[in-house]
Specification:
The complex is a heterodimer of chains A (about 230) and B (about 375). By secondary structure, chain A is an alpha/beta fold. Chain A contains 6 helices and 10 strands. Chain A is about 30% helix and about 30% strand. The chains are: A alpha/beta (about 230), B alpha+beta (about 375). Chains A and B meet through helix 2 and helix 3 of A and helix 1 and helix 8 of B. Bound molecules: adenosine-5'-triphosphate (ATP) and magnesium ion.
């Protein structure tokens, strides 16, 4: 078994509804993504990018196929674990277009919430969170509320949150859509650096071609299946 | 440790407190209702306790003057006195009368007692001015809330009565204000209360009304004698219903207070249900407002237990805070009620228990919402 594999999908299919209203979104998608890779995922709107991410992230149940995350097969025509949520909180980091921070928690609490759920002791979690804030240049905002930060700052907190549980995989759905060009490039470079430094596989959905040069590979959804360019 | 409920409440503290105050007022009303009931019980027993006799001898088959009409001959008191174990005996009448006051009338409950007898219904501790009755005729002791003062003249029937004493806090078992008159006056009033009645009675053929009737004979038992035994003995030989003080109290509670307690119990139950529904609705909207965050937490992989705990704790805190406000509220307003309101700590604790249970029940709506929340909905599909 290849130790470098982070995500492997085999004949992954997803359709919504049934009968006349059946909508096929993903059909026989098979691909392998290695640790340390930053993958750009592109497709037209409605092409199934979010759907694919949500299946890999164990949020949306596929219709059929097989998903392996690291050395654990999590889906084989059915979930192999009852606790998909445990997989999410231990192995996966999510980043979205909006930061989706918890508005009633301050920045440091937003970051330590997930480690707390993972039963990591408070001190270790706090130290890790502070390191991340430092890394992203917002260490002075630890006690601030999300509403007191700028959009770019909040997005950096959101990325930090996706990293705080030391995930093997980061799924980023248009993380730069709300940012200007310069900040977008900063974020993508940052993701590339994280992928390399921490051996994390990152799939990033983007509509912005200018981000593609910073990615290792480009994955497209064509005829409902995935192809690499 | 991050305490989700605490942080969320801190984030919307003002709103949370105002909400708790609103629910608190509702709970305050519940406490007042219970207090009114307690007050009723206290009121009901004033006369019984002031008389403080061991035995009530009443018409055979009746429950005694607190619950239904009872008539016995006043001579019975002498017979009773001859029973072994009896210390003192006396006679007593109860009747509702109207006292003319300015242009209107006030309804009072008149207790007639033997001025020369050894048992008096007037508790010296309650007499705030004047004295008890001294003569057989045309004297009256009234309770302060009637509004009469010492030496006032009151027309009753064909005669003018003089107020000789004022009591405080005396009411009948039904909550009417108490006045005291001599047994002779009471018997006369009962008999000659209106000429009209005499006429109708005559028309019905009731000619000779016996004026020597009273509502009950009361007696005390000598130390060393068992009250129950003496009671049984009297019943056996006199064919009268005999009640000890405790049984008379039970009759009072059963027949006088029970209806009221059902009435108030209904109100209280409805209010508690309303409070539960309101807390449920509040928690439901509070949860709805957080749906986005809840979906995100679920998507990130936070276990349900953490989120559910937040909802349940918030509901409990809302309930407890409302309970505290309710207590403050009820203590601020209870003295302004016209009838006696007695706030008791054990009642408050029972309500506390009910509030805790109600809050947990109320939190179910929020918890259900959490469990059904779709993590994928966090990102808008
Ligand atoms: N829960 C659902 N029920 C029915 N159809 C769905 C559902 N979720 C997604 N779809 C359909 O699946 C298709 C792919 O949706 P998806 O959100 O994955 O697209 P996308 O590539 O992320 O688009 P965008 O670039 O606009 O975000 C769409 O046609 C959408 O209508
Ligand atoms: Mg999408």
């Amino acid at each position: 078994m290849n130790k470098k594999i982070a995500i492997r999908a085999e004949n992954l299919c997803k359709s919504f509804g049934d009968g006349d209203s059946l909508v096929e979104v993903i059909k026989n998608a098979s691909f392998t993504i290695n640790k340390g890779e930053l993958i750009a995922l592109i497709a037209p709107s409605g092409g199934g990018k979010t759907t694919l991410l949500m299946m890999i992230g164990c949020v949306e149940e596929p219709t059929s196929g097989k998903i392996r995350l690291g050395d654990e097969t999590v889906y084989d025509d059915k979930w192999l674990t009852r606790e998909t949520r445990k997989i999410r909180r231990e192995k996966i980091g999510f980043i979205f277009q909006a930061h989706y921070l918890i508005p009633f928690l301050n920045i440091i609490d937003n970051l330590t919430l997930l480690p707390q759920a993972n039963k990591i002791d408070e001190k270790t979690a706090k130290k890790k969170a502070e390191e991340l804030l430092h890394y992203f240049g917002i260490a002075d905002k630890a006690k601030a509320m999300p509403s007191q930060l700028s959009g770019g700052q909040n997005q950096r907190v959101a990325i930090a949150r996706a990293l705080v549980n030391n995930p093997q995989i980061i799924l980023a759905d248009e993380p730069t859509a709300a940012l200007d060009m310069q900040r977008s490039v900063d974020v993508v470079k940052m993701l590339k650096q994280i992928a390399e430094e921490q051996e994390v596989a990152i799939i990033m959905v983007t509509h912005d071609d200018r981000m593609l040069p910073y990615c290792d590979r480009i994955m497209k959804i064509k005829n409902m299946a995935t192809v690499f360019e | 440790m991050i305490h989700l409920a605490k942080e969320d409440i801190r984030h919307t503290l003002g709103k949370f407190i105002v909400t708790a105050m609103g629910v608190g007022m509702l709970l305050g009303i519940v406490l007042i209702m219970i207090g009114v009931y307690r007050g009723m019980i206290v009121d009901a027993e004033v006369l019984l306790n002031d008389l403080n006799v061991d035995l009530w001898i009443v018409q055979e088959g009746t429950l005694g003057p607190f619950a239904e009409a009872s008539r016995v001959h006043d001579d019975l008191q002498y017979t009773i006195r001859s029973f072994q174990g009896i210390e003192k005996s006396g006679i007593i009448t109860f009747q509702n009368i109207q006292l003319p006051k300015k242009k209107s009338k006030i309804r009072v409950f008149a207790v007639g007692y033997d001025v020369y007898g050894s048992i008096s219904p007037i508790n010296p501790a309650r007499l705030t001015s004047g004295r008890p009755l001294k003569t057989d005729h045309y004297e009256i002791v009234v309770t302060d809330k009637t509004g009469f003062s010492l030496h006032d003249k009151i027309q009753l029937g064909r005669n003018i009565y003089t107020v000789v004493g004022i009591t405080h806090g005396t009411v009948s078992s039904g909550g009417d204000l108490l006045v005291y008159i001599s047994i002779k006056d009471a018997q006369e009033l009962q008999f000659s209360y209106s000429n009209k009645r005499i006429q109708t009675d005559r028309a019905r053929g009731i000619v000779n009304r016996d004026t020597h009737m009273v509502n009950a004979v009361i007696a005390t038992v000598l130390p060393g004698y068992d009250t129950e035994t003496v009671a049984r003995n009297i019943h056996k030989w006199q064919h009268k219903s005999v009640y000890t003080k405790d049984r008379q109290r039970a009759v009072l509670t059963k027949y006088v207070v029970e209806k009221a307690s059902k009435q108030i119990g209904m109100f209280t139950a409805i209010l508690v249900i309303v409070a539960t529904i309101i807390i449920s609705l509040i928690i439901y909207t509070m949860t709805l407002e957080k749906m986005k965050e809840i979906s995100i937490m679920k998507l990130m992989g936070l276990p349900n237990s953490m989120i559910v705990r937040m909802i349940v704790e918030e509901t409990l805190l809302l309930g407890i805070l409302a309970f505290i406000f309710g207590n403050i509220f009820s203590h601020l307003i209870y003295s302004k009620f016209p009838k006696r309101v007695v706030l008791e700590i054990p009642d408050a604790w029972i309500l506390f228990g009910v509030v805790v249970v109600a809050s947990i029940a109320a939190s179910f709506v929020g918890v259900k919402k959490v469990i059904n929340a779709d993590p994928a909905s966090a990102i808008g599909g």
